Amino acid sequence: MENINQKVAEYLLQIKAIKLSPSNPFTWASGWKSPIYCDNRKTLSYPEVRNYIRDSFVAVIKKEFPDVDVIAGVATGAIAQGVLIAQELNKPFVYVRSEAKKHGMENLVEGVVEKGQTVLVIEDLISTGGSSLKAVEALRDAGCKVVGMVAIFTYEFPTAINNFAHFACRLVTLSDYSSLITTAVAAGYVSESEVETLKEWRIDPGNWKK
């Protein structure tokens, strides 16, 4: 996994799916100030990166979650990734909406999944884990056995770690914040003097720069 961690981090930095700016922070939709911005949807625009991430997902799933009936993507960021993975594994695919449709069948889970089936959830990015774990809850409410979640990247927030523990949901990621910082310093994306700022933000992102 160490090689995958580093390679995915390198790719995300190279294609600017992840941008680091400790001296001029971004503002997230939540209002948080952040020295990092991540948009993993960009990986889909680069075939080499897209294929590497798909193949890494598949390798991890075969090793860590070999007995899975259905692959589920979290809308909207993980739908495309989930389809690519399900196709490669020859598994059924469903996706979970952020909220139920307000018309028609009012579905929350789109696709065909049966009670008792084992489901692995695919996500593109883990921040606090809140929206991701809503998908887990929806699948469990539908009678599925969720064996875990695999994501491209996690910020490794303590809140997320606690949330996944509370939901008893195992999380495996292709790369993480620690690997990203190590890779960014080695490749010259940030200086050694900026590393402390990046580490401080991850510990308490909601109050950083207040």
- Strand order in space, largest sheet: 7-6-5-8-9-10
Predict the CATH topology: Rossmann fold
Low confidence ranges: none
Please outline the major beta sheet.
6 strands, mixed
Number of E strands = 10
Question: How would you describe what is shown here?
Answer:
This protein has 210 residues and is α/β, with parallel strands linked by helices. The chain has a 6-stranded mixed beta sheet, sandwiched between helices. A two-stranded antiparallel sheet has the order 1-4. The protein has a two-stranded antiparallel ribbon with strand order 2-3. The termini are far apart. It has helices at residues 2-14, 47-64, 79-89, 130-141, 158-166, 177-187, 192-203; strands at 18-20, 26-27, 33-34, 36-38, 70-74, 93-96, 109-110, 118-126, 145-154, 171-176. Helix 1 packs antiparallel against helix 2 and helix 1 packs across helix 6. The model has no long low-confidence stretch (mean pLDDT 93). The protein is globular. It has one domain (2-207): Rossmann fold (3-Layer(aba) Sandwich), CATH 3.40.50. The longest helix is centred in the N-terminal third of the chain and has 18 residues, at 47-64. The chain is built from 7 helices and 10 strands.
Q: Which structural traits does this protein have?
A:
single chain; 210 residues; alpha/beta; six-stranded mixed β-sheet; two-stranded antiparallel sheet; 7 helices; 10 strands
Summarize the structure.
The protein has 210 residues and is an alpha/beta fold. It is built from seven helices and ten strands.
